[in-house]
Amino acid sequence: MKRIFYFVVFISSVCLFAKDIDFDTKLVLIGIVIQQNTQVPIPNATVVLVEMNTGSRNQVITSANGQFYFKLEVDKSYNLILMNVNGEKEDMKNISTINKSEPEVLHTILLYKTTSDDSIVKYDIKNQVPYPKEVK
After folding, report:
1. From CA 118, how far away is CA 113, in angstroms rounded?
2. Does residue 97 carry a pLDDT above 90?
3. In what order do the strands lie in the sheet with 46-51?
4. Does residue 7 register a pLDDT over 90?
5. What is the sign, positive or negative, of the torsion defined by CA atoms of 123, 125, 129, 135?
6. Domain residues of the chain, as ranges?
């Protein structure tokens, strides 16, 4: 059931973000931040994309459903970093677009591991997008 949920989230992400993506963009990274123990999406989390060679940084805040996206360049290596509210790293992934010349949408899940009530971003269940309980 979790796989169906994440599939629906990623498909909805593509639809939501497609209107903001230039047609010249070949590579896009779409992701979601979830709390590790509860699997609940985390809104308003800070995600930073660092290009490895130049050190250039791009920072976004996750949507109400914990989603984010970045436009990527061909033949680059990136660090994708999830920061907690104290400015500490929660999760990090390496993203590579080396030898990716065809248009592609990359997907990732970042895990928010902190469980302390004062350092986790609260998720307002009222703003959660309803997903079907069963796919027929």
Report:
1. 13
2. yes
3. 57-61, 46-51, 77-83, 89-96
4. no
5. positive
6. 2-114
